[in-house]
Structures are given as structure tokens and as C-alpha cells.
Task: structure prediction
Amino acid sequence: MIRIRSFEESVQKLFTQGKLPGFVHLCIGQEAVAAGVCLALESTDQITSNHRGHGHVIAKGGDVKRMFAELLGKSDGYCGGKGGSMHIVDFASGMLGTNGIVGAGIPIATGAAFANKYLNSDRVAVAFFGDGATNQGVFFEAMNMSALWQLPIIFIVENNQYTEWSRTGDLSVGTTISRALPFGIRASSIDGNDFVAVRQTVGEAVMRARAGGGPEVVECMTYRWHGHNEGEEAFAGHYRPKEEIEAWKKRDPIEALIVHLIAEKIISPEEVEKMRSEEKSLVDRAYEFAVASKPSDESEALTDVFAEQGGVK
Amino acid sequence: MNTGTYFVTAMRDGIAQAMREDKTVVLFGEDADKSVMGSTKGLIEEFGKERVINMPLSEATMVGLAVGAAAAGLKPIIDLMVSSFFYITMDQIANQAAKLRYMSGGQVSLPIVYFAAQHSENPHPTLAQQAGIKVVIPSNSSDAKNLMLASIRDPNPVVFLQEAVLGGSRGPISEDLEEIRLSVGRLVRSGADLTVFAVGRTVAMAQKAAEVLEKENISIEIIDPRTIYPWDKQIVLSSVEKTGRFLAVDTSRKTCGFGGEVLATVATEAFSCLKVAPQRLCPPDTPMPFAPHLEKFLSVSEEKIILQVRKMMGRS
Result:
């Protein structure tokens, strides 16, 4: 969680300095969801993510050096600079893709879950998406199919209460749970800023899914401290009350976990400080690595459209 | 031809052969078990409902789940039934299936076949435009079987468009393994005066037109690309070098249509061989009306090919 925060803070600084091409969507404030869910998974389990996906990539085991290189469009990036912030993919860690289209990862995770079941593998697929995506048709289609076939899939609704620049409450009726229930899908809504609750709830859901219990929906209530995307003030203005932002900042998921761990004597304050400085330096070194990495060769832009022809047998 | 294998049966035979060879080949389709179009007939009896999956009417998720299933080790075949349904799925086909390999820097290959019947709506240029999806349109039973096999074995997303009007046509099946290849065009008929490039159901129209024109001492060469993207440029250019005249016949609408793309390639790469301006014959930029006589008025036909060829030969 500290690594995710350090990475996002560094990305924010670089964006402000004009050193990053394209758009970035930061997940500062939502770190407990990414960490709690991914720590409940095996490295072979698959996830699909969305536009706000840096935290999911890191929590699933992604390397911040290669992430930074991707954000800078360098050859050492996960996709050689062809994906960027919204299309980081790392199949080696089961990360089937962040995604620029809201809700688009849901059918893909459903397909991965189908394959897992068909191949008698005990892998579980997880789709991360936001409250905005619960209004996409594919969410309902995928819930129907996964319930019909009892697929090993967990739908993680990361509810930060805003659909881009609008309050989701102004755009939706009912609750996330009420959308899952007609499909007979077990659904729960939990405090997404409470790492322990996320880890435990999702851990149990994953165990049930692995054992053939079928799909589940877990809604994690949380809040993004930053905008929908960095630099939004220029066109979106201030659409969230200051008091609301301040109130959620007081519920920092990282600080809450630290307080808990110190109280339980699992970790000392000194160890926490050491961890913060180690993670900051890891992220700083990752950025230096990315800056030093070669830009992708122009010839790379013409490769990887198709896999080699295997049709001649 | 009224002997040989039905077109849809040939497609089915291609699918069945691939499913026998490889247990990771799985078919999803709306009413796949009943096989309304005939191209999945008998598959559920042979392979069971675990491998022939009857689908709810959720095209977008059906197309998208193929991406995830392929990424996780399967070779999904998706029966979308009708080609207009591709438009329901455009995010999953254009943003996801077509782009995931490229945008991941080649981390994954996605062996998927999406097939559908087409008639009045012909989306092959739209799909070919996405860069990352191969598109095939067979014109006869043999190609229907062999291109289906090639499409399933290909490690990329392939859209297989079945001409609805050819479903009940029949023909012999070539057992030549060389025929099981994508992106290889076919010389349908040799000729000296003019090259007709014909797609899908227009191949048979061009063949009939060639017989009529032969009696007028006009010798037509016919090229069937078979694969729309990536298409066999060389077979076309070689033919134009020989005949010096070129007519592209296509079923997609004129603006940004496939016929225009092929014509542009001929105009830019074989310009010095051309004796007359190259032409295209395709439906105009309108939706297709329901009334059969209006449809006929807009559509490519044997008669329109004959008239266009005569004009290009200075015989009108």
C-alpha cells in the first residue's frame, strides 16, 4: 500500500511538471482495495482492471520500474510503450490488462473464469471496476453468465462514489448489492478503506469460488483523494465539496492499517518509517531506471499486430 | 452446382475437425445446439454441452469473454449468427480483441474465431480497419471448410463471414493441405483482357458474367481474395500486369469500402500497366431497403458486371 501511494505521488508530481505524456488516473486513497484483494489471490489467479489501475498492477506483483518505463513510453515498459498508463498488461503476474473503457474488463475476466473452470484449474478471476461501470450492460450480462455457469469469478466494485465528474447517486438507482441479488449472486458491501476487512471478505469469497461456489460481488466503499484524472481542474472545476474530501482524507487506509498493526504490536513505528523511506527510494530508483531506458525503436510500432501465422499445418 | 457438400455443412465439418484435434476448441453461440443456420448442426451431439455452449442474447459479453478465455488457454469459436450483431459488440471486438496483443507489446496471442452470416449488411471493411482482426469471406464449400480450419488454427482473432445466400450452395471439398491457408487468394478463371476482383457471393456472379462475355470475345480473369484482411495483394497485381484492366466487385458500400481499398492499391502500384481507368462496382452509400426489388436495384449483379466490363472494353 505504501508502494502504491509512493508510486502515485511520484506520478502526480511528474504529471504536474509536464514530464508524462497522456492522461493519468490516480488511486490515492483507494490502496486498501487493491492490496486487500490481490493479497487474497495466488500469483496464478487473473485480474482485469480499469483506467485507475496502477494500484492493481503493483498489488498483483508488478514491477514499478517497468510500470514507470511504460508510462514514459520506453522500451523497458511492460508493453514497450505501446500500452501506457491505461493499458499496462503483465500476463506473467496474471494481470490481463488495465483498460481505457469503463467496464470492458468485466467480459474478459468472465472469459478467463470460464477457461479456468473448463480446464479444471483452480484459478480464480477477478474483475476490478468502479461504481460507474455498474451501469454498463456488460456488467449485467456477465453476472447472468457467471451465475448460470457458476464461474470462479469475483466482481470487485471499487465504489469511490463518483462516475467521472458526477456523483454516482445522481445517475443510478438502487445499490450495487441490489443489482447482484436477482442473479442469486452472493454480494456484500464493506469498508474499502479497511485493509483487514477487504482481505478477509475477499479471501473468503476466493476460497468459495475456488471450491466451485460460483461468482460473488464485493463492493468496497472508498474515495479517491485526487480527481478523475490529473489536471481535471482546468475543465471540470471543483465538483466535490472540500469538507467531503477532507473527511475522507482523515480516513486514510494506510494510516488506519499502521495504527492497527502498531496496536497489535505486529510492527513498530520505526519499522514503518523505514518502510516508507525504502519504498520512496524504490520508486525514485524506478523512475531513474525509466528515464535511462531507451525509447522504443520506431520499428517496434509496426510489430505485434498479429501473432505469427500458425495456419499452415 | 447441385452436387457435393453444402456450404454450411462444410463449415460445420471444419469446426468438427478442429474440435476433434484440439480439446481447447470450444464453441459458443446463440441457439448453437439447434443450429438455425446449419453450420453447427450435430456438434452438440458429438462434443456435448460443455464444448458447445448455448448462449444468452448478450453479444458484447460473448465477444469479450472469448478474449479472456483465449488469454487463459482456450481457442473459442463464437457463432454470432448475423453480421449486423457485430455492431452491438464493437467495444469488445475493436478495442479489446483487436488491440490487446499489440497494446501489450505482444505478450499474448488470441486464437479466436467469430463467425456470422452476412447478406444486406456487410461489415468486412469496418472489421478489417481495426488492425488486429483477420477477416475471411469464402465463396464456395471447399473454402468454407478449409478457411474455417485455417481460422481456428490461426493464433489471432479471425472474423469468418458466411454469405447467407451461399449457405445452401454445394460443391466439392479440396483435400489439398495447401488450401488451408489464410491470406492466399485464388485464381478462379484465367483470362487475358480484364481482371475482375470478386468478393464472396459476387464470385459466382463474375463467373456467369465471364461466360456471357466470352461469347463476345472478352476474356475475363477472376480473382477471389478469400481473405479480406490481410489480403493477397500479389495475386491481384500479377493479374493486372497481364490484363491491364481492373474491376473491383464488392458487397460493402462505396465510401471507405473494401473495393475502393483494392482499387487504390492497383492504381498506385500497377499504374503503368493500366490501359483504362480502374473501376469498382459496389452498392451505393445507402442502408439496404427491405423490398426485394429495391434491394436488387442497389445490389451488385451479374448484369451490372457485364455492363461495366463492356464499358471498360469500349463495347457499350
Chain B touches chain A through 52 residues (CB under 8 Å). The longest helix of chain B spans residues 7-21. Residues 60 and 90 of chain B are 8 Å apart (CA to CA). The radius of gyration of chain B is 19 Å.
